Amino acid sequence: MRLLRVTQRAILVATFGALTGCGMLEVSNPGPQSDESLNTATAMAGLVTGMSFDLSRSMDAATQETAIMADELFHGGSYANEIFFNQGIIRPDLVNGMWGSMHRARWVAEAGIERMKTVLEEGFNTNPLSARAYIYAGLANRILGELTCNAVIDGGPSEDHKVHFARAEGHFTEAIRIAGGLTGAIRDSLLRVAHGGRASVRAWQGKWAEAVADAQLVPTAYVFSAFFSTNTGAENNDLVFETNNRLEYTVFSTQWAQVFRDPRVPWDTVKTTGGAIQNGQNGRTPMFRQRKFNGLGADIPLVKGTEMLMLRAEAALRANDVAGAMALINQQRAFYSTTANPLPPLSASTAAEAWPILQKERGAVLWLENRRLWDLRRWNAEPPPIKHTFLDGRDKCIPISENEMLSNPNLRG
Amino acid sequence: MHPMPRRLLSVLILLAAPLPLLAQNTGMIQGKVTVEGIGRPLPNAQVGVVGLPIGTQTNEAGDFRLTGVPAGPRQVRVQRLGFAPATQAVTVVAGQTVTLNLSIREAPVSLEQVVVTATGETRKKEISNSMSTISAAQLENAPVVSTQQMLTAQSPGVTVLANSGQPGAGGVIKLRGNNSISQGNNPIIYVDGVRIFSGNTPNVPNARQNTLPLNDIRAEDIDRVEIVKGAAATTLYGTEASGGVIQIFTKRGQSGAPRWTVEITGGTNDLESAEVHGDPAAVWLKQCRGPLMFGIDITRAATLGDEIRFEDPTCPPSNKWIRTGIIQRYNTSVAGGTEAMQYYFGGNLSDEEGAIETGRNITGGFRGNFSFRPRPNLEIGLNSSYQRNKVAWVPDGNLANGFSLNVMRGLAGNYRGPGCATGITNCMANADALRIQTFTRGDHYISGLSLNYTPIEAWTNRLSVGLDYVGQENRSLIPYGHQRSPLGQLSHTDYIRRFLSMDYASTYRKPFGAAWVSNTSFGGQVFQNALFNKSVNANDFAGPGEPTITSAAIRTVGTDSRQKVVNAGLFAQEQISWRDRAFVTLGVRIDGNSAFGEDFGLQTYPKIGLAYVLSDHDFWPKAIETFKVRGAIGESGKAPGAFDAVRTWSPIAGDEAKPGFTPNQEGNATLGPERTREMELGFEASAYGGRFAVDATYFNTTTSDALIGVRSPPSQGFLNTQLQNVGEVNNKGLELKLDAGIIRSEKVDWRGRINYTQINSKAVDLGGEPLIAIGALTEVREGYPVPALFAPIIKNPNEKAAPQFDATLNEFIGPTFPDKITGIGTTLTLWGNLMLDALGEFQYGGYNINYIGFQNANRGVWRPCYDAQKKLAAVIRGTDPSAANDLTALERARCAIDRTVQNAAWFAEATDFFRLRHVTLTYQIPQRWLPRTNGGSVTLSGRNLWLNTDYSGLDPESADQTDSEFARREYYQLPQLRSFSVAFRLNW
């Protein structure tokens, strides 16, 4: 009986020890952050960094794919969707990833602003983070407005894509208001990017004079970029991997393959050990490698002074000021010109001569910066001499994605 | 030495040794066990004295010896899986030996067989659902080394798909198909009462394969495997059990002198049988020099359709990439004990080379099983095993730097090098791929303590506490100076999966009158599943040498997971039996799980079952000695992922390495488990003295509240789908097992067996989701099998015309997994000592995508397309406008030069196949030839000897492991190895 008692006690002790001492009932999942825990002032910096991160991810996805749609790169690899983009086919089922990442960037920024207002209360209007949040919201809307065929806000119905431009203008204006109340270098930096962002979305709404006023406030050398980094894989600029490592996209077969020694459009060829030009991932397309972005941490510009020069040049040309437009174009060329790769001044005496120059120059300045598809789209819709024909017979914008159409009750049926 | 351990050791030695002191009033029983009707000696039968803890096993000659049997009248019982137990009376005289010869009847369906359920041990006749048992004794001569192989084609309702021919690669095991769309369908697995991890480990970087820790349970240590297939049978196992339960029981010692076994196996692995229809080089695996080294130019206008030659100076001197790999295996075990304690020790070492130069799996380990009986009513069991693995992987699968992908792509591969003949522009260097060093090092430790306490005869109690630890290191190095990554890369993953489990079950038996008996059971389980997973990547080393992560200029952390989930449940069961022939069972299980949503609460799973042994009635015809009908309805579940219910944000780094958050998961406070309800009907019968046996089951399973990843509009910010309990999945099917003694005589004993499984699955409701995309061309759609291939189809495949298709319309092709499986086995025993055993398997109804064909055809390197592509090129060039007239639309699509026509869908095809899994020939060496032993055996084996299929890829069973949990595709995997081996076993 003694053994029985000992055994019974041992079982009880073992049970108790296993359940408690060994942590058998312990549950944990460190890592993910609960939603409620972000409702503190100290979480706001991380929230805004997240806005920047999501904006970079949307740029990462969109830059690669719109480059193929807009004749900046050619698909020479094995990915399935890009085969269609090469042909000018942009279907809803092919753009789920790009649509999602662009909308996440917008939602994170706009929902984050509302959370910041609640958490920071009065301090919201004097906090530099608030201005940054508005800038990210503005840029995310600008990207959506430029690339999408239709706007969809927070699961709502389909709207005109220019809704995004109006929202962006509002966000940039708020950023300018808050930044204007700040002091020091951060004030100047925030104002430049906000004015630069607002300049473009005002132009796309036809407000060219106001756009020029904003553009003039951005110095030529100024660049504000979507950040990329080698710090983690999620921060990588994947365009670099696809063009330099995997050899999926090539400059071959684009209009830029005929542009040589232009510091704005740098590319080279990849050679095999036998000296032949290396083919891309599909085994048959020559690999002309873009060299604008050379590392996985290379940033992609979102707002820059030379873009503002081109915007002002376009505004001048639309006002029939050919000389003024060419002066701004040449100012931009001079900025990039180097001794090794000079960019001599260009000349045009008529609008018909100037428009193709402006269109190509804007393309060179903004090459691989996710802007070309919109430029080609809006010029394609204009009469000559503005008319650009590349998108004739091709899809011109990103349709509402299949995932959005299937999951959004306002779009079903 | 400390005095306490010394004393403990002394006690153990005393317990382990036969006790001569006890022999004063005891005698010995010896004899031979033979098969009834044919007189063949029966090895590995358990012989014991009823009511006493005295037992042993028969040797190869069927002989046994029971020592220390108390004098007096005794009942001796003999049993073995596949035979009806037999009992015979004998009188033991103190100090003397009595001879007792027994014979037992073959009974593929034995209702007296004891099996283990959630409530404890019970006879098979009392169970109201189907339960399959695979006996190790049936397979001891088969070339089976892993549990996965042991389960293949042995039991209906079990689907086993090997994913790759790499030594050490894990496969997929499913019971009765796919009940869950999102939560996996692995059965839960118990080893000697300890729950172990049943899934696959993470994909190995640069290998695209993974391991299955279940395979660390060595086949030579296994006594039997019990397979409990449906929700009706697994109710008391609760949440997680809807995929079924596999119980593995390892060997235990028997009282008596130590019995040793040593087995040495040598053999070979090869891929000489690898075949692609219409390609004698088998995508250059079998020829890497010679006249077949060319592709077709489908790119350049001027040379379109021309043959392009290529060379690979790094091709081995044998002119082929495949080799003959060497197999070496060594196993030993010893078992024995006393009345008070029994032991089993086993050790193993295996070194298996694959058919490609670097592929190899070295594994070794040991097992110790002890059972103590300090009192007649208390048994304590301690079972522990440790297995260590080192797998060297061949870079396999969809891997741009991989070996398989580049060799199989011929001149379109990525590895280029010098050294070719002048004029050859396509000079390859594929041996560089083998410089990628990818290893898995694994430790697997299982330990369980069990207490079986019977305070009174009617009341049994069982408590089990267990630990399962899987630790794995995956490390892959692309060395500095490598062609594809000149500065080098290093990937490293540390993975730990730890299961802690505690089970308690108690049963009280009470008769009511002469006819009725009540068995009341209750119990509970607590189970903790802990996952620790870290991965780090390093890029760019300063120079050659063996680097570490810190040697690299760029280091990035990929994963850091530390999750613990707890599931706890209670069950109660009442079984009423009438005249020991009718059994009604009612049960309920109540579960809580930390993965359930905050507002969900507990989950309840009920069950009811009836088993009726009609053959126990007097009116039943004697020729059919066993006939049981059974039916059951029950439920079990499947929990959502660890924290799927919670709304979360993912920490990220942005803005040049600053901390931030991005949306992760929307959350669902009402999230609960899937509920799987199954209705099962069946019967088991045997006739003419066990000569014929049938076990048939029909099942109909409906999973309601199925967890479906529902997508919110992306414009609302959360891009990941959120699990919701909105779906419904139905599986129904038939399982049939036939066993027949075709010829039965003392000199010739020939048995045949057939297992047939048919599973028809259907997604009934997807909660409003029109489809769920799983993988390449693989979807779940309402009204179709789960999952299935959906793709554009050629409307006029056999017409000699241009292909007609709509590239935007995905149509149903077929189920991803085979829906009909037939295993056919036969065993021929001649003169009692020469045995021929063969096992083949048909799998049909499944579909896979031959991505090797698709990707190669697009590059002009798919030999079955060469003629077609030359003709299509001639049409395009205008040299012969009618050249393609004799090509069918399907040929024109598959071999298309026009990129707008090329589509992986044209390579989505049926994987129906027959595979000869193994053939073995065993000769039992007579004891007289091996003096002072209990005999031995020599076995010649062949595995994967023949494959018959119309599938156009390398292997219809292959799958890129990334997808194979649910979706499948063949993407440059190495096919199944063919093996030959000879094994020598010695017993003493």
Features:
heterodimer; A: 413 residues; mainly alpha; two-stranded antiparallel ribbon; 14 helices; 51% helix; globular; B: 988 residues; mainly beta; 22-stranded antiparallel beta barrel; 5-stranded mixed sheet; 49 strands; 50% strand; disordered N terminus
Fold blueprint:
The complex is a heterodimer of chains A (413) and B (988).
Chain A: H1 2-21, E1 33-34, H2 44-69, E2 74-75, H3 81-86, H4 96-120, H5 128-147, E3 150-152, E4 158-160, H6 163-180, H7 185-204, H8 208-215, E5 223-226, H9 238-245, E6 249-250, E7 267-269, E8 288-290, E9 300-304, H10 305-318, H11 322-336, H12 351-365, H13 372-380, H14 402-407
Antiparallel strand pairs in A: 2-6, 3-4, 5-9, 7-8
Helix pairs in contact in A: 2-4, 2-5, 4-5, 5-6, 5-7, 6-7, 7-8, 7-10, 8-10, 10-11, 10-12, 11-12
Chain B: H1 3-16, E1 26-35, E2 46-49, E3 55-57, E4 63-70, E5 72-79, E6 86-92, E7 97-99, E8 102-104, E9 114-117, E10 120-123, E11 131-135, H2 136-139, H3 147-151, E12 158-161, E13 172-175, E14 188-191, E15 194-196, E16 222-228, H4 231-234, E17 245-250, E18 256-270, E19 294-296, E20 307-309, E21 325-337, E22 341-353, E23 360-375, E24 378-393, H5 403-408, E25 437-456, E26 459-478, E27 489-512, E28 516-541, E29 552-578, E30 582-593, E31 603-613, E32 626-638, E33 648-654, E34 658-665, E35 674-687, E36 692-710, E37 722-744, E38 748-766, E39 772-775, E40 778-780, E41 788-791, E42 811-815, E43 820-830, E44 834-844, E45 847-849, H6 851-857, H7 866-877, H8 889-894, E46 908-910, E47 913-925, E48 936-949, E49 978-987
